[in-house]
């Protein structure tokens, strides 16, 4: 009976470790998603054309067509999209003070469920 309890304890420890790993992974995905959404909102405020935004999205999807081994596909797509958006000329030509004041506002993207 003691041996069985030890085995159950080990299984529970392993499950807890897996859950913690998943929690961290989801937290990273959530952070990257929020970054991407903020960039999209900034671009919308700068009146980016739908065509330019479509090109960014297609470029991202093309880059992520063949997932790299060892990288989570969802995170890879979000990360690539984030880098594609930050490279957008509209964001790079945005005045620094406007970017800083926009970032200092409370986050309008957070939705209460």
UniProtKB/TrEMBL annotation:
Coiled coil residues, start to end: 2-46
InterPro entries documented for this protein: CCD48 (IPR031601)
Domain of life of the source: Eukaryota
Keyword Coiled coil: yes
Keywords recorded for this protein, A-Z: Coiled coil
Protein's recorded name: EFCC1 protein
Protein species of origin: Lophotis ruficrista
Gene behind the chain: Efcc1
